Amino acid sequence: PIDVLLNNAGILGGVDNQKFGQLDYDMFNKVMAVNYTGPVKMAETFLEHVAASDQKKIITVTSSQGSIKGARGRGGYFYKASKSAVNMAMRTLSKEVAKRGIIIGLIDPGAVDTDLMKPINLPFPLTPPAKAVSNLIGVIDGFTIETTGSVIQHNGRALPW
Questions:
Q1: CA nearest neighbour of 58 among 83, 10, 92
Q2: Are 21 and 72 in contact (CB under 8 A)?
Q3: Which of 16, 48, 53, 56 could disulfide-link 3, Cβ–Cβ 3.0 to 4.6 Å?
């Protein structure tokens, strides 16, 4: 049994590869493979192991950039599209497995000081990884069948689509 299956892999795909008029579609396929296909395949592969557990949670790390309302700034076409796609896939899955008591959660860790964020110039400080993990553990613990399919931010607030 797997109590909490955590999908936490993601790539940005490079800033220069995602400038409109110069979009690198091979890179788009790589970003989608990691950010969308990977979590969906993990959920599909391990669903019965999660179903056999006590907590029954499949949690996917997403981003505010996957929210149409929450996305900010220019560029990032591939990254934003991949996170929006994984959000929709997990939301759809949540509807299919809720009757089995399986909880599907999407979590937004905020801007964390990782290699993914290094090429991006942000006007605010990044969250240290240990603090981000601490925040997310509380969010994961808080997911219930009533909140299945939701995107919850690191601060416990729902992220609008």
A1: 92
A2: no
A3: 53
